[in-house]
Known about the structure:
This protein is of the alpha/beta class. The chain is built from 21 helices and eight strands. The protein has a five-stranded parallel sheet with strand order 5-6-7-4-8, with helices on both faces. β1 (33-37) and β2 (41-46) form a beta hairpin.
Amino acid sequence: MPLTPEQIWNKVIANLKDSISPETYELWFKPINAVSFDDKFLNLSVPNKFFSDWIQDHFQETLENLIGQITGSEVKVIYSVDPNSRKLMLETENEDPVPPENEPTPKPVPETSFNEAMQLYPKYTFKQFVVGGSNQFAQATAEAVANAPGNAYNPLFIYGGVGLGKTHLLQAIGHHVKEKFPRLSVFYITAERFTNEFIESIQKKQMIAFRAKYRNLDLFLIDDVQFISGKPSSQEELFHVFNSMYGAHKQVAFASDRPPKDIQKLVERLRSRFQWGVIADIQPPDLETRVAILRAKAESEKLFVPDDVLLFIAGEITANIRDLEGSLIRIVAFSHVTGTEINIDRAKEILKDIITKDEIVGQITIDSIQKIVARHFNIDFRDMKSKRRTATIAFPRQLAMYLTRTLTEFSTTEIGGSFGGRDHTTVMYANEKIKAKLSNDPYFAALANKIILEIKSGG
């Protein structure tokens, strides 16, 4: 006597229960019913298309193998959506109870919105991330997570100020996992959008679908998590999402503008979860890293910007990578629109509204520049103003003139006067010579960066 669809499905479930967690069974398999069987196809009824998509991604081959063993023939599993099919959600503390039989069944979230993941920005990859001393640990842990999601550093919590690369690293994890493990489900979202979806799901009585969406991901990336501060219901839901994923050895990664201990109005058990894994901070980049970021940006956008202009921007925009890259684009755009050359003077003029006079001149004096350069080249500070023209003295003097021209607002005449009464043409010649050297000699450029950093820090 042939087996009925229900008998086949019951046998499948009996075999499957040994290899899946009770939570997975309750949430994903218990709501499914077998509808029909015709030797080639077993038709399963599911609550919504998200169910069928998830089953196909994670268990399709397993189901078909089990059915083949039970029936002795090759059978394909197909799905039909029945919004009125019985659904049972995973019960956890403080969650909404399953609605009684006589109450209307919650409508599933429409397919278009339910499957809509926040898009990963194409350029936010590890390859495009410039590594320096200020972000090296965060980058290394993020890459380790991407290479072994759920196994290394779970959860990962990245924090740092605005515009320092937290979102870039979070999305780079997503890109890498999607490329290396294409069958894993990856989802990136901001905490604000997570909260809004949670509220909407409550209003529309769609909590079952909401929980099914988030608790069965393989990689969950949640940005700006500080947004849930003071939102106890959202914190409660995120707590349960985390527990479900962590218990299933799935990867969770957070980003915030502050460490967990500094997020106000956060329930302690969620704060504790944030601190279970690795906490990595990102600091403002040092001068060398800022220059490298600008060079990478210029190369990726196919922009030509002289190295001395890059040095100038990197020296003045110190705290925020977005402002750093934005200043570069602003200068290039101005040059394209006006047809003018990109140089230091023009950069100063274009950025004058975001670089204050104090930032430009600050405590930097010609005297301090001369002393620091002289010390680096092991010459007498007095030779900066002497008439001696030997190469061992002339070149450091030219570098000091160039740095004075770059880091201060003194005119070429004023600079020349401070270097032993030289005229402005001597200063311009020194400026051009050092610019050429910076463009052609990376070792010298590195030394110049180091000297600039010392000058900026007050010597």
